Amino acid sequence: MIDQNNIREQFPILNQKVNGYNLIYFDNGATSQKPISVIERISDYYKHSNSNIHRGVHSLSRHATDLFEKSRHTIASYFNINNPQQFIFTGGTTDSINMVAQGLAKNYFKPGDEIILSTYEHHSNILPWQLWAQENGGKLKIIPLNNDQTLDYNSLPNLITKKTKLIAVTHVSNTLGLISDIEKIKTEATKHNIPVLVDGAQSAPHMAIDLKKLDVDFFVCSAHKMYGPTGIGLLYLSEKWLNHLALSKTGGGIIKSVSFEKTEYVEGALKFEPGTPHIAGAVAFGEAINFINRISIEKIFEIENELVQYAQEKLNELPEIMMYGKNTHKAGVISFNVKNQHPFDVGTLLDKYGIAVRTGHHCTQPLMQHLNIQGTVRISFAVYNTKNEIDFFIEKLKKVITMLS
Ligand SMILES: Cc1ncc(COP(=O)(O)O)c(C=O)c1O
Q1: What is the pLDDT of residues 107-161, one digit of tens each?
Q2: pLDDT, tens digit, for every residue of 301-357?
Q3: pLDDT > 90? residue 2
Q4: Hey, what CATH topology would domain 4-26+296-404 get?
Q5: Is 268 helix (H, G, I), strand (E, B) or coil?
Q6: Using CB atoms within 10 A as the burial measure, which of 45, 229, 282, 388 is most buried?
Q7: Residue 101 and residue 107: Cα distance in Å, rounded?
Q8: pTM, entire model
Q9: How far apart are CA 274 and CA 2, in angstroms?
């Protein structure tokens, strides 16, 4: 049995009042809160282990290097990958996608090529491809939505042409919480030998990800949405791309030899990690994975799924509420609007009761255009949220509706 109080006690930030009320943090899709083990890992690192890594012969440097590489192993094993060298530490999802886009631009994309995205995409998984397309006469093609706001996978065969060079899709919509069927996308992609990039920013925090099974070319996510620190994330590359993805950044620490005429690079993940990395962040990312493992990601999914179903039921009882992406196959996120009210007003009034929700377009403006709305109110859960919090939120939401009407 999971003791919810025990989980909550591990998050010092939850133990505070906001505007005179106990903080209810429903903005986990933007960033999750951090358990004390992760916070202390960062401070312990700087207190006892801080040194630059990989190039030092002294004990402290070797110790810091061990911690950094051990973290890579912990994360690799969590995502079920045998070769930790396939995990590149990056600044996060946005950084990872840009690295792939810039790398593919150098030796893979040809002018006029096409990239398939979905209507769900976060701007971070649109803009790097759009920039390349604008500069190279390329084209973005978009998987449309069905009436229930799930992806229309049947459209894929019509979208794919001889010029299609990549399919880049989000695993879970950060606005609707709906889970994409990567298997269906892969089936079509494999027929035409098209690589697939999965944006796991919103799936990795909520559901078990087995990268051996998922078997895509690129997978990216951010530690800060998974109980870890900001400024660190990962880029997983399949064996093929580990050897073929062109470098988009270079610098110290990634070479075998350099002369003014030529450079020989190291192999594996290090090649993609020039300069001094976010060492404390990488170590704390590993600690965040330890936190998840102590509960188990399957259990986290179960707890959050119950919260999603419960909150959806309660919201559905309110006639003033319009829900988006009502499907049951969801992970952690609910979007809604109060009829005839601006989401910003709803969010601002909920904040007066200490309830943190996100309002606006959630960096998915094309999805907003499709839904023909300006924005939504989004509540997104983590393992420390409770049904009591949802009850309080619903009670206050009713008050907000009355105030606004
Ligand atoms: C689906 C999705 N992709 C990409 C990102 C960008 O992540 P980051 O800001 O950590 O780079 C987010 C952040 O909310 C997201 O939800």
Answers
A1: 999 999 999 999 999 999 999 999 999 999 999 999 999 999 999 999 999 999 9
A2: 999 999 999 999 999 999 999 999 987 789 999 999 999 999 999 999 999 999 999
A3: no
A4: Aspartate Aminotransferase, domain 1 (3.90.1150)
A5: coil
A6: 282
A7: 11
A8: 0.96
A9: 41
253: left (phi over 0), alpha (psi -120 to 50) or beta: left
The domains of the chain are located at 4-26+296-404, 40-294
Encode pLDDT of 70-89 as tens digits: 999 999 999 999 899 999 99
Query: For ligand 1, is residue 385 a contact (CB within 6 Å)?
Result: no
User: Which pLDDT belongs to residue 327?
Assistant: 78
What architecture (CATH level 2) is domain 40-294? 3-Layer(aba) Sandwich (3.40)
Question: Which of 90, 96, 117, 122 to mutate for ligand 1's pocket (most ligand atoms within 8 Å of CB)?
Answer: 122
Q: Of these residues, 23, 142, 159, 363, which one is catalytic?
A: 363
3-state secondary structure at position 236? strand
Query: What distance in angstroms lies between residue 194's CA and the mean position of ligand 1's atoms?
Result: 24
CA nearest ligand 1 atom 7, residue: 93
Strand partners, 166: 115
Tokens linked to 51? 């040194």
Q: Which of 124, 224, 364 to mutate to test the pocket of ligand 1 (most atoms within 8 A of CB)?
A: 124
Q: Answer yes or no: is the C-beta of 124 below 6 A from any ligand 1 atom.
A: yes
Q: Are strands 321-324 and 333-338 parallel, antiparallel or unpaired?
A: antiparallel
The answer, yes or no, to whether residue 199 has pLDDT greater than 70, is yes
Distance CA 140, CA 161 (A): 12
Q: Is 363 designated active site?
A: yes
| Equal fold, 4-26+296-404 vs 40-294 | no
Give 233-259 pLDDT, tens digit per residue: 999 999 999 999 999 999 988 889 999
In this structure, what are the phi and psi dihedrals at residue 389, rounded to the nearest 5 degrees?
A: -65, -40
Long-range Cβ contact pairs of 213-222 (< 8 A, separation 24 or more): 213/80, 214/182, 215/186, 216/182, 216/186, 217/241, 218/96, 218/100, 219/79, 220/90, 220/93, 220/96, 220/97, 220/100, 221/93, 221/96, 222/92, 222/93
